[in-house]
């Protein structure tokens, strides 16, 4: 069942059939600071295996996006949040956060995470705070993975 909400003439939807992967790849692979150079096939696989939101302008074009990596039972990681420059200033980040907080598949989760370099103020409005127990978290980062493509 498709989830949608309206926001000032825009529509936030989790309908993957409507999602504009070409536009998403231009944003995430070309303009984002976190995944520049990501191969289109990799982003396609990520989108297909995630709960993905597209935000659509009244004209129908995709104006923003976000992806949620989740098991829909215990955790969710909000990532790949991007608002097209032409559509900034219309509250689309807040519309994405409303969808993230209200989506039926994201209720009752024990943990919700995200990482951001520049939008702490937005996410704090929705209850996000610095991670406690960060000394317990570990990761493997392969900074060259997209170069090997």
Descriptive tags:
single chain; 6 strands; six-stranded mixed beta sheet; 27% helix; 149 residues
CATH class: Alpha Beta
Order of helices and strands: EEHHEEEHEHH
Major sheet: 6 strands, mixed
Widest sheet: strand ordering? 1-2-3-4-5-6
Structural class: alpha+beta
Low-confidence stretches: none
Please tell me the CATH architecture by its name.
3-Layer(aba) Sandwich
The number of helical elements comes to 5
Question: In percent, how much strand structure appears in the residues?
Answer: 15-25%
CATH fold description: Aminopeptidase
| CATH homologous superfamily label | Gcn5-related N-acetyltransferase (GNAT)
Shape: globular
Distance N terminus to C terminus?
Answer: 34 Å
Q: What integer is the average pLDDT?
A: 96
Helix percent reads 25-40%
Query: Rounded to an integer, what's the Rg over CA atoms?
Result: 15 Å
Count of distinct structural domains:
1
User: How many DSSP E strands?
Assistant: 6
